[in-house]
What we know:
The structure holds two protein chains of two kinds. Chain A is an alpha/beta fold. Chain A is about 30% helix and about 20% strand. Chain A has one domain: P-loop containing nucleotide triphosphate hydrolases (Rossmann fold), CATH 3.40.50. Chain A has helices at about 50-60, 85-90, 105, 115-125, 130-145, 150, 160-175, 190-210, 220-225, 245-250, 255-260, 300-305; strands spanning about 10-20, 25-35, 40-45, 65-75, 80, 95-100, 180-185, 210-215, 230-235, 235-245, 310-315, 325. In chain A, β4 and β5 form a beta hairpin. In chain A, α4 (about 115-125) packs across α5, α4 (about 115-125) runs parallel beside α7 and α5 crosses α7. The longest helix of chain A has 18 residues, at about 190-210. In chain A, about 45% of the residues are buried. Chain B folds into two domains: about 1-85, no CATH class; about 105-330, MetI-like (MetI-like fold), CATH 1.10.3720. Chain B is mainly α. The model of chain B has no long low-confidence stretch (mean pLDDT about 85). The termini of chain B are close together. The interface of A and B includes residues 101, 109 and 120 of A. Chain A: Keywords: ATP-binding, Cell membrane, Membrane, Nucleotide-binding, Transport. Chain A: Belongs to the ABC transporter superfamily. Chain A: One of its GO terms (biological process) is transmembrane transport.
Amino acid sequence: MPDxxxxxxxxxxLKTVFRTRGGEVHAVNSVSFHLRPGELxxxxxxxxxxxxxxxxxxxxxxxxxxxxxxxxxVLLKGVDILKSTPEELRAIRGARIxxxxxxxxxxxxxxxxxxxxxxxxxxxxxxxxxxxAEDRATELLELVGIPDARKRLKSYPHQFSGGMRQRVxxxxxxxxxPEVLIADEPTTALDVTIQxxxxxxxxxxxxxLGMAIIWITHDLGVIAEIADRVMxxxxxxxxxxxxxxELFGNPHHPYTRALLKTIPKLGDERDERLQIIExxxxxLTAEPSACPFRARCAHAFDRCERENPLRRPxxxxxxxxxxxxxxxxxxxxxxx
Amino acid sequence: MLTxxxxxxxLAIPTLLFISLVIFLLVDLAPGSPASQIPxxxxxxxxxxxxxxxGVNEPVHVRYLLWLKQFFVVEPLVLIDSTFGTxxxxxxxxxxSWQSRSPVFDIIVERMPQTLTVxxxxxxxxxxxxxxxxxxxAYRQYSWFDQLGTFIAMIGFSVPTFFTGLVLILIxxxxxxxxxxxxxxxxxxxDWDSFLAQVRQMAMPVMVLALYNAATISRYMRSSMLExxxxxxxxxxxxxxMSERVVVLKHVLRNSMIPVITVIALxxxxxxxxxxxTEQVFRVNGLGALLIGAIQGSDLPMVQTLxxxxxVLIVLFNLIADILYxxxxxxxxxx
Lengths: 336, 335
C-alpha cells in the first residue's frame, strides 16, 4: 500500500492454502489491505469467501497442517509478523492483537471461571499477579458493562447469557490494550436486541480506547452502522474496497451490488420476493486465473474468463486510499 | 453437593438390598450341596447333623435375613472389635465358609493384600501409562507415535489376558528365566533381596494387566482429547497467546478428564473381581482365586459374600465417579 507507513496493520499479498486429500484449496489469494489507527474496517462477504481465514492467517491461528500461509507480509507497526517465531507470535496474540469469535456459547472454556479466563492473558502478557490481575479483570468486566463485576469473576461461563458471554469475550480480547481488535462475526450468534447492545458497546469502547478494529460480518446492516471503510471479499480475494458511504452509495462490483440488493427494506411491497444471488461461491482448487465471480455475474464477458481482474482505483485516489474494485466490467458502458 | 451425596447414599441402601436378595437367591439356586464334600463313608444321620449345624436346612428367607444381619451388623462389629479391642461381637455368629469352617471375612482379609498389590498396582500403572499416551496421541493425531499407540492398544484389548499371560510366561519364565512363573504368596518382604524377588514375581501379572488397562484407558483419553481439541475455546486460548502447554494441559485436559475419570473410577471395582483369570494364570492367591475355589467347592456363603462385596464396590464407585464428575464440571450441580 502506498500509505502503509501510517498503518497499524499492513497486509501485502497474503496467500493461504489448505492442503486437503482432494488437493489444494486456495482460500486466500493475494489479499492486501491496511488498517489505520483508530479505524474500523468492515469485512463483508458470504460464507466461504475467505474473510475469517484471512484474519486467522494473520496471526497464525489456523491449524497447520492443513493450512499453509504461503506468501505475503503482515506488517504490525512495520514489523513482519509472518516471519516471527511461534513464541514471538504468541507474545503478539492476545497482547497486541485481540480476537473476538463468533459463537460466545462455545468460545469460553466451560470448566474455568470467567475471572480465570480473563486473567490468563493479563498474567502472561502483562505479568500481573494476584490482586493486581483481579483488579484489572474487574475493571475490564466493568468496561464491557457487566454489573457486579468483582463477584462475577467467580462465575462460570454457563452462568452467563449469550450476550454477557460475548461481553466477556470482548473483555478478554481487550485485556492487554491491543492495538488491533479483530472481531469475527461477533454478533451473528446473538439476537437482534443483544446485537444492538454489543454494537453500542463497541462504539463506546472505540471512543474510549481508540484502537483499530477489523469487523468481519455478512450483515451489511451492521457494517453500514459502524464501519469507516469496507472491504468486500469473494473467492478469497478483495473485490471492492471503499469508505462506507461511498460503497453503499456508489457500489461498483456486480457482487457488491447484488449483496446490497439482498438487504430487505422496511416498507417494501410484501409480496415482493427477497433478492438472492444464484449459485454457490467457488471452491478454488488452483489460484484463480479468471474472475471467481464470473459464473454468477450478470455482466460477465469473455475477458472475465481469460484473466482475473486486478484491483484498480476508480476515483483517482491511490490504491487503497479511496474506492477500488477488482472487475473488468464498467458500469458506464465501455469496457475498461 | 453434600445433600446430593447423602441422598445418593440413602438411595444406595434399597439398591444394595435388592442386589443382595438377587445374589443370595441366584447362588442358592445353584446345584450342588456342601454335603458333596463330605466323604461317602460318613453315615447319612451324621451327614444330616453336619448339614443342620451349617444351617442349610433352614428356610431360605431365614438364611437370607441371617446372612444380611451377619454382613451388615456382625462383621462391622468384629471389625470395630479388632481395631479398638472392644467385645461387641462376642458370641455372635459370623458368616462361615462351608469349605474351611472359618469366618469368610477372615479369609478375605487374608487374600486381599495379594490382589491389591498385584492387580491394584497394575491398574495404577496402567492409568499412569495410559494418560500421557492418550494425551500425546491426540495432540499429534496420525503421527507415527499415534499409529504405534493405536496398534499396541489394539493388541492390548483384543488379545485376552490369559493369552498374553501365557506368552509372557513362555518368554520370560521358560525361555529367559527372568521371572518365576508362579506367584509365591508366602514371600515376606524383609530386605532388599526379598523385595527384588517380590518385584520379579509381580512383574508378569502386572505387565499383563497394565497392558490391558492402559490400552482401554488410553483410547478413552485419546478420543476425549480429540473431541475437545477441536472446540472453539481452544482457539480462544490460542488467540490469547497461551503456550501450547497451557492450551493442551490446562484447557483441553481438564475438559477431557471428565469422561475419563468416570471410566477410571468405574474400573476400580474390577480390580477386585475382574482379574480372576490373570490370578489363575499366574497362581496369584488373591480374591479372584478365592472366588473360583469357592464356586468349585459349592461354598455358597463365600460366593454370596464375595459377589455382594463386588456389588457394594460397584455401587460405591459409581457414586464416587458421579461426585468427581460434579467437581470437574461446574455445569453439573447436583443440588
